[in-house]
Fold:
Amino acid sequence: MKEFPDVIAWSIPAFLLLIVLERVSYLLHRDDDEVGYASADTATSLAMGLGSVVTDLLWKVPIAAAYALLYTLTPLRVAEVWWSWPLILLAQDFCYYWSHRGHHVVRILWAAHVVHHSSQRFNLSTALRQPWTSLTSWIFYIPMILAGVHPAVVAFAGSINLLYQFWIHTERIDTLPRWYEFVFNTPSHHRVHHASQGGYLDRNFGGILIVWDRVFGSFAAERERCVYGLTKNINTYNPLRVAFHEYVSIARDVRAAATWRERAGHLFRSPGWQPDAPPAPVTAPAAQPTPVTTP
Structure:
């Protein structure tokens, strides 16, 4: 079995150090349009990150088994030579784009991903606010496995993608050179992704590259000040509620649904979907009194 270094685990000390440094920078100076840090919010993000490390170990076993089975079934093999790695990272980033986009437009997938968007602040600690129920993301990378990329290589490429995204969770960096902003995901682009106002919703799904959003029509540039969080914020720092609140809401809606079509809609339609209201009953017009005529 191939083994690669766990770049995320090795990077945790650097993550924590950079969070401390960013917070110190806010204590020294903060612009009026930056929301900065709050202790309770940061503690929740760190708790969610720690919990995701534990739960990811549990989900890793069945996912690795499924990937291994698919890898043995395909006759294709991608050679791990120097020139194949840029192509592997490109393919992984493409699959990540569709995984990320899917987790915004399918409610049962959003139930996991909403955790990452639940903070009303945007700083490096927000990057660590990760879900505990990442059960379906692996499905989007099956094409890479079937194309002959070794499962361990897919996992390592995913770690590189996740590592890149840590530094773009900040308000401390404005915009970068135009050529970089055009090709790569940046703090400016990712601030838009975490914003909750209408023109910014469901935009900028890229991981390392922003070109997928430009190609597939989901790109939005940062124009106005971003308001972070959800369209309906949950206003809690309880990690259990943060992790599972959307599943509870889905269960409530499914239980109250009148038909199986509505139940499926609450699971697989967009997070804001609601069934059409039943038509108002048609009432017959009141009978008009018969005019009385005199002889």
